[in-house]
Fold Tripartite motif containing 34.
Amino acid sequence: MASKALAKPEKQVTCPICLEQLTEPLSLGCGHSLCQACVTVDSEEAETGSGKERGCPLCGCRDVRRDLEADRPQADEVEKLREVQLSTGTGKKADFCALHGEKLQLFCQEDQKFLCWLCERSREHRGHHTFLREEVARECQDMSGIMKWSEIWTLRKPKSPSTKLKRVFQAPRLSTVLRMFRELKDIQDYWVDVTLNPVNLNLNLVLSEDHRQVRAVPIWPFKCDNYGILGSQYFSSGKHYWEIDVSNKTAWLLGVYCRKPSRKFDSSCSTTRTNTCSRYRPQHGYWVIGLREKFEYYAFDESSSSGPKVVALSVDIPLCRIGVFLNFEAGTVSFYNITNHGSLIYTFRNCFYPRPVYPYFNPWNCPVPLTLCPPSS
């Protein structure tokens, strides 16, 4: 309703030259009114142009600008219209010049303030660089957006990651990486070329021609849970190292085996998963670590009690390549994650070997092959 009421009065107090509300209106001889600034500019253009005085832009009458006088009634109408606009919310007092009452449509770069058209033509701002208010507002809006995001990026405190994420994505210190690298390089000096022993090979295992790769195959209708195979080489002293590729496997066992005086290495299919924990332990000649159910890494060690000790292993990234280091002098068997800068996975200590020690491999029932890596590969 307010916009309809304002439509007709606003049209009546609009200057026909600048198409804005009249500012300091002057009455022409024909009865029409123009802004004082528009009359001045229009007259100057007439003098520099055709040399003829222009008539009224509305009715075209000539000789109407000789006796110009202030149009007080129109000025009062303009003032009333502005008050109505401010009261109804269709106009803002801050949008108008306090000196001339004209809209602030320009911005003065030198004085850093908004101007109306009359202010721009005044001596105070003559020769200054002015820009449209819309352009300045758009630029400021873009800049404020940049500043807002800058504050968010630099000042907002990030959320604390969960313990699981810290463990998964925590990057090791450079000093730690260098130390692990040097340690691994020293250990790899003892790399031996280990191959798989085809003697007494289970029917559920398939060996490659070079004896470096083994994979499990199902034998229907028999169910077998023992997929163990020894290396062709054995050791009685010194230091020895080898690497195994277990990429994409969901289950495996790796380590060393020493035949105990009262036991014999069993390559039959009689072992079940129910006695896995009790079988693969140092007491029975096995120093091994393994993977089961795709994500569970573990080691079978001895405990102070009579039962075996199953140690859950914390692994930062999935194991793809593993190094095994057998050290007779220190009585240890250590496992290294070659995929993660050669970080230590687990170490068996106080190992005692009454007989020669063999590398031990078990691909379990996972069809993905287990591969022995050649030295320095």
About this structure: The longest strand covers residues 239-245. Helices lie at 2-12, 36-48, 72-88, 117-121, 133-155, 163-169, 174-187, 276-279. Residues 1-8, 268-274 have pLDDT under 50 and may be disordered. The chain has eight helices and 19 strands.
